[in-house]
Amino acid sequence: MKTSIATVCIGGTLEAKLAATAAAGFDGIEVFENDLIGSDLSPEDIRSMCGDLGLSIDLYQPFRDFEGVTEEQLVKNLRRAERKFELMHRLGTDTILVCSNVATATDSSDSLAVDQLGRLGELAAKHEVKVAYEALAWGKHVSRFLHSWRIVEAVNHANVGVCLDSFHILSRGDDPAGIAAIPGDKIFFCQLADAPALSMDVLSWSRHYRLFPGEGAWDLPAFVSRVLDTGYAGPLSLEVFNDVFRQTDPFVTAKEAYRSLVSLDESVQASRGQALGSTVDAAGSAIPSAPASSGLSFIELSEGLSHETPQLLNALGFQDVGLHRRKNVSLWTRDGVNVVVNHDLVGPAAIASLGVDVPDVAAASQRAAALHAEVTPRDEAGDEDSMAGFVTPDGTKLFFSADKRRWRSEFPPAPEGDASQTAPTRFDGFDHIALMQPWQRADEAVLFYRSVLGLSGAGSLDVPGVRGLVQSRTLESPGSAIRLALNVPPGEPNVETILPVHFALACTNLVATVRELKAAGVQLLPIPRNYYDDLQARFDLTDEEIETYQSLDILFDRDASGSFLQAYTTTGGNLFIELVERQDGYTGYGAANAPVRMASQQRRTTA
Amino acid sequence: MKTSIATVCIGGTLEAKLAATAAAGFDGIEVFENDLIGSDLSPEDIRSMCGDLGLSIDLYQPFRDFEGVTEEQLVKNLRRAERKFELMHRLGTDTILVCSNVATATDSSDSLAVDQLGRLGELAAKHEVKVAYEALAWGKHVSRFLHSWRIVEAVNHANVGVCLDSFHILSRGDDPAGIAAIPGDKIFFCQLADAPALSMDVLSWSRHYRLFPGEGAWDLPAFVSRVLDTGYAGPLSLEVFNDVFRQTDPFVTAKEAYRSLVSLDESVQASRGQALGSTVDAAGSAIPSAPASSGLSFIELSEGLSHETPQLLNALGFQDVGLHRRKNVSLWTRDGVNVVVNHDLVGPAAIASLGVDVPDVAAASQRAAALHAEVTPRDEAGDEDSMAGFVTPDGTKLFFSADKRRWRSEFPPAPEGDASQTAPTRFDGFDHIALMQPWQRADEAVLFYRSVLGLSGAGSLDVPGVRGLVQSRTLESPGSAIRLALNVPPGEPNVETILPVHFALACTNLVATVRELKAAGVQLLPIPRNYYDDLQARFDLTDEEIETYQSLDILFDRDASGSFLQAYTTTGGNLFIELVERQDGYTGYGAANAPVRMASQQRRTTA
Fold first, then answer.
1. Which of A207, A466, A499 to mutate against chain B (most B CBs within 10 Å)?
2. What is the domain-level CATH number for residue A154?
3. What range does the domain containing A123 cover?
4. Which chain B residues contact residue A603 at CB under 8 A?
5. How many CB contacts within 8 angstroms connect chain A with chain B?
6. pLDDT band at A321 (very low <50, low <70, confident <90, very high)
7. Is A284 within the bounds of a domain?
8. ipTM of the complex
9. Is the same domain home to A445 and A382?
């Protein structure tokens, strides 16, 4: 796969864009007209800079509003095109993108477009340029890719072909199976973008909300497969207009972009029945497939400004088994659930790292590195467990470990008389971990967890909080051994909008667990009476059930499969812990209850 | 006009919402179900709190997914409704909003909906409740207001009427003239929201992007006129879901909301042929109409961290006429254009205030106060000009002055031999002032300038900057004596995204002015050669024109009416000054050139 990316995808000056693109491992770039016009590098300078960086210039774009115009306008357009062809010659690129006319077309007939594009083809041939004609989703008369192909087929000129862009095709709901109608040698270019499942006008959607493949809702592997089926062998090029990317460090964005293409290639290979591991990294080595994790062997939290982490763990019956033999971190454990408390991390409570059980650390690590994940070595000595560490876009660290019992021996053994062994109820592992996302990195984080860990899902939900909407996207590993909730707080994180950190423990019997905790004097988040009045109006619950839930501050939800019970500790400092029970395969996260929970938390904060 | 607002419009706890609503002067509120469910105030507590604050509870909402369902589901829905009617009795409100079914309807026939809403009417009558049925724009079977009216008409029950919501009607493109078909006494409620001119799916549009009247693109006065024509005399209630409002201080949002209703009332009165001044404030006094400003008599800037303001003014031939007789501010003047430099304001260069010439300071000031503008007194002594000062949402201060020559005498007279009197070219006043908008306040600022100053316009444009998109909205007074460009930088303002401050001076002959400046050694922002190559490809300009513009770093644009020339000083510290010439009634701001300008500025910053 020849990889390419449009300069418009990333921020910074043209010089920075070129350097970042090369550093991320791309083979080529598309030069966007505005980037050239605003630059004081001459076209020759840009050409030689790309040459030095090992980048080919695969496309010059965009050239707009050419066809379907009056003869008088066409003469002007041909003059404009000739100037651009001369420029391309200086730039050293031979393909120009011509978008379907959105503004100046006065005639909707295909025959006029065919005639005028034919004349452009003649001029292009003289300048040894190839014209890639693309149907913009909001084109005035030509807005579907099969329409652009009918026109190009009728033009029947060696220098005129089509450009296929996943955005313009999938945003219109067109079936990529139709691509089969186009011979591969008439596809002059292929541009890729993913997008969230919005349904807004295609122009705004396109200009602001495109995403890299794997960050949105579209089936890009199926799309690319259709393109490759035609015999197309040109670049797969990212063209992603996104408000966030343009504000971000171009080197970070370029790596993210490259990760998306590698991951896409992998999915394409799999969907085409290739053996796993047939995707290769920039150096040509095979990339191992995503690790089949059996779950989280531990999570690591900071102690919190007011020691809230140990206090809450203690309240929930976790035992402090003591300090690591070398490091200032303690292990707390109950029912085989392990939480490491780091005493050296200062600041509000935060989830610092996740210990991910994988069958093969070397393979998981090689994969992460090939996907440009940033390495963070674990502090290890002697015969300690050998883990591989990576930093996620949201700052959480992942530590891959192959044998969860090995690191356990770095801590003291559990004391005799472990309370958890006599408790009538048990925790059944982590149900999910909520990870706070800076809004600038949230889409990147989805791609990261999908590609590096092989999680899937990521349906998006807006939860109305007291200070604004919280966007929540959930991801799961196959079999749900790992569940993550990626939460984006409203606006910039600050003292007003910051959300407390939390994770959820799975309970086998939440009613019994909460009774046990209440009997032990643990205070749970009080839920207002009005909530239970409404619950009674909404569900067929018995008075006794309502009364039980109300007396225990348990929230209730139901989906098509089953029921869900939730309770929360009160928030200590910046941390609370959620307790959940899933009944009969309930798959959600109780989102309907989140506004009530957040209002109750807010009341306690301001009280 | 009885004013009301839904609790969902503003952020904070229910207690804060009620207090903020009352403080802003509203007559009543709509209680949104989620606000009640999440509250630990009992319905009786809420009722008595509203009573103490002088607020009526005008509506309980929303009740969803009632009609068009199976008989089994209907029994459940009636049970749920009865619980809510009992709750409303405790709350002391008699009207419930029932939205058209979006989820559970299994039957699209009107007859079933009519039958089931009739049974709801019977139950409502027993509980003395009025049901206001509203067609949601995304209702499953009922999504247009005339459809909801046909159903209500057929129900023919005293306790069942319609709720009209401008969002659901205008977002579907329906003509509010159709409201005339509905008798006023069957309109049980009227909700208002404005919105930006997006075309996205109505659900997302509704949930995130509603605006208060006067902030968006819709003709709310025409809508309200149609409703009043029916004889409707109930509350006009704001129901605005907006991500920003929910993150803002509820007291600020409630005042903004109230301002929008007062301003709307004024427009409605005007459109119905009422005399001006027939709109009254909360205390019942008539509100004077918007001032007919003759322009800006001065603008006040801070000196800037590196004295950039005086340096740039000096470079452009402004003369420093000296200090104010009492204050540490200097007046700089050329060709009757006045810039005050404040030496006491520290920090980066910023536009601190605008001196607005108005015919009647007392009237302009009374209007601003009635619209909840925050007063900021000018430091005045003795016989100095008596101005009235107000702070805008973006922080700029407005000073209304009735006689622009009076304050002039507080500064020394201009020295003899004023360079501007001998210069061959002249400045013709301020063309426009660019005011930086924190994104959280930008919509509020549009409403403020529209209502307090009577500006109009505010088309929105996204300009691609090097660090992301800059949203720009322009407003003008009648006759264009005042032009403002409200610019929202990408993301939170910080060292990466902050935009330099600028204002634009109108030139009668830009080519001559720039020649004069260059001859005097003034450096203008260099524009890359690539820009002029493109200009030649885009416009029918002669080689000589292109060469002149290129040699003078002048940018060119053209619209349907005329041409536009622009040049920029280099940025000193945080300030640059734009020079423009409008030819033949060009109405824009040269937005097409902004990316080139920003790229050139960025290059100089990072060089």
1. A466
2. 3.20.20.150
3. 3-271
4. 13, 40
5. 156
6. very high
7. no
8. 0.71
9. yes
